[in-house]
Amino acid sequence: TVLQSVCSGSVTPIVLTSNVAGTLFNWNVVQTGVTGASNGSGAIIAQTLTTISNNIGVAVYSVMPLVGGCPGVPTLVIVRVNPIPIATANAAVTTICSSGITNITLTSTVAGTMFSWTVIQTGIFGASSGSGATIAQTLTTVGSNQGTVFYTITPTFNGCSGAPITVTITVNP
């Protein structure tokens, strides 16, 4: 495939083939916003590419096929390298009263990050899994005891998932 997309820290999945037996391949690469790409030769380009910022980086490989010392037509293979998002949660308060609303704002250093979360709740109801940039749910205690909710939030950008974070909300009766 001429256009590839990988997550930062992943290995390029480029397999080079030809319809002419005995073809060798040499490549040169220009990288922008990534590290890890290098010139080389062989039938597989397997290099670990890492973004150097919170933006998409690009490695452009110019692949030259050679048979018996005769060069063929070069092919450009473009690899987009997506940054791994890091989630940050800003909970206005981590303890609320029964029938109170959570106010958790989710952000990331990578623009365009999507967030999804799962829930483990004990002694309360009203929490549910979901997605978005804000967790605003009405939580109510089941009885006269304090309850808790653990929101496990996963950031995703262009199919690349970052490390999950957990926000704990305590619900007083």
Description:
- By secondary structure, the chain is mainly beta.
- It contains no helices and 23 strands.
- The strands form six sheets. Strands 1, 4, 6, 9, 10 and 11 form a six-stranded mixed β-sheet that branches.
- Strand 9 and strand 10 form a beta hairpin.
- The protein starts with a strand and ends with a strand.
Summarize this structure briefly:
This protein has strands at residues 3-7, 10-11, 14-15, 24-32, 34-35, 40-41, 44-45, 48-51, 57-67, 70-71, 75-82, 87-91, 95-97, 100-101, 104-108, 114-122, 124-125, 130-131, 134-135, 138-141, 147-157, 160-161, 165-172.
What distinguishing features does this structure have?
single chain; about 170 residues; mainly beta
| Model regions low in confidence, pLDDT < 50 over at least 5 residues | none
Radius of gyration over all CA atoms, rounded: 24 Å
Order of helices and strands: EEEEEEEEEEEEEEEEEEEEEEE
Helices, by number, come to 0
Looking at the chains present, what oligomeric state does this protein adopt?
single chain
> Between the first and last Cα atoms, what is the distance in angstroms?
58 Å
What percentage of the residues does DSSP assign to strands (E)? over 45%
Principal-axes geometry comes out as rod-shaped
The pLDDT mean sits at 95
- The share of residues in helices is under 10%
Main beta sheet strand tally, sense and closure? 6 strands, mixed
The total count of strands amounts to: 23
Q: What class, by secondary structure content?
A: mainly beta
